[in-house]
TrEMBL record:
Origin species: Hesseltinella vesiculosa
Protein name as it appears in the record: HD phosphohydrolase domain-containing protein
HD domain span: 75-210
Keyword set, alphabetical order: Hydrolase
PROSITE patterns linked to this entry: HD
One cellular component term from this protein's GO annotations in UniProt: nucleus
Sections of the chain in a coiled coil: none
An annotated GO BP: dGTP catabolic process
Length: 470
C-alpha cells in the first residue's frame, strides 16, 4: 500500500474524480501546522471553486516574502487551517456543553466563516488595502472585509451552492465578528467569538497565523495555541478561559507583537511595500487595477501575479511601472533614512500630518536639490491587537471550582513585568533615490527639531546614523 493512499495532500481541485475521498465522505489533508485535517463535504464544496482557489496566489505575508525566504506560504492553507480550528472548537463546545444547544447550521456556518474570512484580500493584502487603494481612489472607502462578502456571494451564486440567505448572512456576520440586529443569531454571542473576536481579539484566525507564520519563518514560538483551544468554555454566552491560561494569553499577544515588530513591519519589507505601491499606482491608469474591486469577476483575477503581469507587459504606458519592478528585482530598493519611535506624550504633536514629505524638503540645505518625490513618510503602529488597550482586560476567565461564573483578572495579579503601554507608533522616512539618504536625514531631523522644540533630538541621535550603508 503506497504512502499516497494514506496521506492525501490537497493539491488538486479534481480530487473528487480521483476517488480519494475518505470513509464517511470526508477528505483528509495533511497540513504542516495541524497535521491531518478532516474536511467535510460542504467545506470541500467551497474549496473546490475558482473563488477559493484564488487564495493560492496571495502570499500570507505579502511583501515580507521578499525579505524572509521562508514566508512563501499562501492564504489558501491559512484559510483551511482557520476552518479546521473553528470547527474543532465549536464541535468540542457542542459535545462538552450540550446545554448550549449548538445546531448543525451553526457548526457549518462557523467552519465556512473560518474558511472564507480572507476571500476578499487583494494583492499583497495590506499594501493593497492601506496604501494602494486610498491613493488610487481617494475618498472611496473600501476594505478587504467588504470584498470578502462580495466574493462569498459570488462563490455561492457562481457554483450554485445550496445555502439559504439566513445561513449566508450568518457566515458574513461570523466573519465580521458581530451579528446583524435582525438576525436570529443575535443572542448567540459566543459563536461570534470564534473566527473574528471583536471583544478581546482572541480568535482562531490568530491561533493559525501566529503559529503558521512563526513556523514558516523558522522562529520558535513560546506560546501554545493548542492549550488555549482546550482550556476554554462558554460562560454567559461568551468564550472564557481557564484562569491558569492568563499568562499564556499575554504570551500570545506578545508573540503577535514580536512578529509585527520583527517581520511584518521590517524596514526593508516596508521599503519594498512602498515600491510595490508605486508600481501599482503607475500601472493603474492603464490596467484599471483599482476598479477591479467593483466587480467580483474582475477581482477574481487580481492576485499577487499582477506584478508579473506588469513585468511581462511591453506597452510604453507600463514602462514606469516596469522600471520600478526591475529595481525591485535587482535589489535597488528605496532606502530607509530614519525613524522616530514617538514618545506617548508627543503622539498628538509628532504626526504624519505635521512631518510630511513637503515639510522635510523645506528643511533641506541650499544645494541638496531635494524634491518632494524623493521623500516618503510612513507611519506604523504595532500593538497588542486592540489599539492602545490591554486586550487581556477584556478576556473573562473561569476557575475549576466554578466553571459557570466568569471574572476578569487584573494585570497586577499576573505579573509586574507586563507592559504598561500596549501600542507604539513609529514614523519612518524613506528615500526613493539612495544617493539622497544623507540630505533627507539632515532635513528630517531639522523638521523634527522644529516640531519637538528640542535643541537636540535624543530619540534619534543614538539611533541609526549609518543604516543606509547596510
Amino acid at each position: 500500500m503506497g504512502f499516497d493512499s494514506i496521506v492525501l495532500n490537497y493539491d488538486s481541485p479534481s480530487m473528487k474524480r480521483q476517488g480519494s475521498s475518505f470513509h464517511d465522505g470526508h477528505k483528509v489533508i495533511n497540513d504542516p501546522i495541524h497535521g491531518h485535517i478532516k474536511l467535510d463535504n460542504s467545506t470541500v464544496e467551497f474549496i473546490d471553486t475558482v473563488q477559493f482557489q484564488r487564495l493560492r496566489d496571495l502570499k500570507q505575508l505579502g511583501a515580507a516574502y521578499f525579505v524572509f525566504p521562508g514566508g512563501s506560504h499562501n492564504r489558501f492553507e491559512h484559510s483551511i487551517g482557520v476552518s479546521h480550528l473553528a470547527g474543532t472548537l465549536i464541535e468540542r463546545f457542542a459535545n462538552e456543553q450540550p446545554e448550549l444547544g449548538i445546531r448543525e447550521d451553526e457548526i457549518r456556518g462557523v467552519k465556512l466563516a473560518g474558511l472564507c474570512h480572507d476571500l476578499g484580500h487583494g494583492p499583497f493584502s495590506h499594501v493593497f488595502d492601506n496604501e494602494f487603494m486610498p491613493n488610487a481612489r481617494p475618498g472611496f472607502t473600501w476594505t478587504h472585509e467588504q470584498a470578502s462578502e462580495m466574493m462569498l456571494e459570488y462563490l455561492i451564486d457562481d457554483n450554485q451552492i445550496d445555502i439559504d440567505k439566513d445561513n449566508t448572512n450568518l457566515i458574513k456576520d461570523l466573519i465580521a465578528g458581530t451579528p446583524r440586529a435582525q438576525s436570529k443569531y443575535h443572542d448567540r454571542g459566543f459563536l461570534f467569538d470564534i473566527v473574528a473576536n471583536k471583544t478581546n481579539s482572541v480568535d482562531v484566525d490568530k491561533f493559525d497565523y501566529i503559529e503558521r507564520d512563526a513556523q514558516n519563518l523558522g522562529l520558535r514560538s513560546s506560546y501554545d495555541a493548542k492549550r488555549l483551544l482546550l482550556y476554554c468554555r462558554v460562560v454567559n454566552n461568551e468564550i472564557c478561559y481557564h484562569h491558569k491560561e492568563v499568562y499564556n494569553l499575554y504570551e500570545m499577544f506578545h508573540t503577535r507583537y514580536s512578529l509585527f515588530k520583527r517581520i511584518y513591519t521590517h524596514r526593508v519589507g516596508k521599503a519594498i511595500e512602498l515600491m510595490i505601491t508605486d508600481a501599482l499606482l503607475a500601472a493603474d491608469p492603464y490596467m484599471n487595477i483599482a476598479s477591479a474591486v467593483d466587480s467580483p469577476c474582475d477581482y477574481l483575477n487580481l492576485t499577487d501575479d499582477i506584478l508579473r503581469e506588469i513585468e511581462r507587459s511591453q506597452t510604453d504606458e507600463l514602462a514606469p511601472a516596469r522600471h520600478i519592478m526591475k529595481r525591485l528585482r535587482k535589489r535597488q530598493l528605496y532606502k530607509f533614512v530614519d525613524e522616530i519611535l514617538v514618545p506617548p506624550h508627543l503622539l498628538d504633536k509628532i504626526t504624519t500630518g505635521v512631518i510630511t514629505a513637503q515639510e522635510i524638503v523645506t528643511h533641506q540645505n541650499t544645494n541638496d536639490k531635494l524634491h518632494i518625490d524623493d521623500v516618503i513618510v510612513s507611519k506604523g503602529k504595532v500593538n497588542y491587537a486592540m489599539q492602545d488597550r490591554n486586550p487581556v482586560d477584556s478576556i473573562r476567565f473561569f476557575s475549576k471550582h466554578n466553571d459557570n461564573e466568569s471574572f476578569t483578572i487584573p494585570k497586577n495579579h499576573v505579573s509586574y513585568m507586563i507592559p504598561s503601554q500596549f501600542q507604539e507608533v513609529v514614523i519612518r522616512v524613506f528615500a526613493r533615490d539612495p544617493c539622497k539618504v544623507d540630505a533627507i536625514q539632515r532635513a528630517f531631523r531639522r523638521a523634527l527639531q522644529k516640531v519637538c522644540g528640542f535643541v537636540e533630538t535624543p530619540p534619534l541621535d543614538k539611533s541609526i546614523h549609518h543604516h543606509h550603508q547596510h
